[in-house]
Amino acid sequence: MIAIPRQKPVFRFAPSPNGPLHLGHALSALLNRDMADAAEGRLLLRIEDIDLTRCTPEFEAGIHVDLQWLGINWEKPARRQSEHFADYQAALKSLIDRGLAYPSFLTRSEVKARVQVSEAAGTQWPRDPDGSPLYPADDRERSHDEREAMLATGRKHAWRLDMARALETIGEPLVWSETGDGERGAMKADPAAWGDAILSRSDAPSSYHLSVVVDDALQGVTHVVRGLDLFHATAVHRVLQALLGLPVPVYHHHRLVTDADGRKLSKSAGDTGLAELRARGFSAGDIRDLVGL
Ligand code: GLU
Questions:
Q1: Ligand 1 pocket residue status of 49, Cβ below 6 Å
Q2: In the prediction, which pLDDT does 1 show?
Q3: What is the pLDDT, as a whole number, of residue 266?
Q4: Which of 71, 78, 175, 228 is buried most deeply by CB count within 10 Å?
Q5: Closest ligand 1 atom, CA of 225?
Q6: How far is the CA of 192 from the centre of ligand 1 (A)?
Q7: What's residue 68's pLDDT?
Q8: CA distance linking residue 175 with residue 158, whole number of Å
């Protein structure tokens, strides 16, 4: 009998270098390494640095130092998203060409003002699962000619997914397979809850949602292990995978490490930063204990 080589499972840890790594990241990275080992799989590192204003080389260098200190190894080199904007632009172009994305011109403060007016008048503005207001319909409803005229003026704009049209195009319910610490099994995605999700920003040629699905596919990722704070975002990722014809990984959303008051750790949380803990004499083994592994 001929032995057919089995494709190895592929895991990835995908931090953004916009702050120092903390205990929450340690849990995610260690879990990725442990799960990759248990599955005899590979572990990749991806630096999610599309936000060129907030990401710095110092934070990026810190990621490598912290992971090494934790005893985690990954396949070199790491993929840096800032070196692959052309890949995300190509995906965006295919959505634009099919009429599934539109340019959006309202600034964050204009949207905020709109929400305030509506809520002052007693009408609750719909919000996405992260609590951000859904983007108003204005730009989606513009005619082709009006859009072209606005683009021609060189006005700053983002690109957004026309969610209703996207779901109509896909035409079937979207699901994903979940193995994490919350609900498990076949999850029904609810992408409409996100409204017209952002695909690229006026100051960044891609969005988190777009680059994450493109990269997971290009890197052959089979298992996405990340925090439960990204559970609902998976619905947007499923829509983009369906529209772009990309494979669907298995998702494992793990519990979050919280501070003493039960709040999710933030990047600025000094007392839980890995470099800080290392300087105070904690060992890599102590970190495992602290995150409950
Ligand atoms: N870059 C994201 C973060 O640091 C994680 C993205 C993901 O794992 O899908 O929160």
A1: no
A2: 66
A3: 64
A4: 78
A5: 8
A6: 21
A7: 98
A8: 28
DSSP assignments along the chain, one per residue: -PPPPPPPPEEEE---SSS--BHHHHHHHHHHHHHHHHTT-EEEEEE----TTT--HHHHHHHHHHHHHHT---EEEEEEGGG-HHHHHHHHHHHHHTT-EEEE---HHHHHHHHHHHHHTT-PPPB-TTSPBPPPSTTTTS-HHHHHHHHHTT---EEEE-HHHHHHHH-S--EEEE-SSSS-EEEEP-GGGG-S-EEEBTTBSS-HHHHHHHHHHHTT--EEEEEGGGTTTHHHHHHHHHHHT----EEEEEPPPB-TTSPBP-TT-GGGBHHHHHHTT--HHHHHHHTT-
Mean pLDDT of 230-247: 98
Phi, psi of 176 (to 5 degrees): -145, 160
Q: What is the pLDDT of residues 255-283, one digit of tens each?
A: 999 876 777 776 565 668 999 999 999 99
Q: Report the nearest atom of ligand 1 relative to the CA of 28.
A: 8
Instruction: Quick: pLDDT tens for 184-195.
Output: 999 999 999 999
Residue 31 exposure: Cα atoms within 13 Å on the Cβ side: 25
Which residues does 146 contact at the CB level (< 8 Å), separation at least 6?
A: none
pLDDT for res 269: 55
pLDDT of residue 6: 77
Give tens-digit pLDDT for 136-152.
999 999 999 999 999 99
pLDDT of residue 272: 87
Give the residue carrying structure tokens 């800080």.
276
Cα of 15 vs centre of ligand 1, distance in Å, is 5
Ligand 1 contact, 136 CB (< 6 A): no
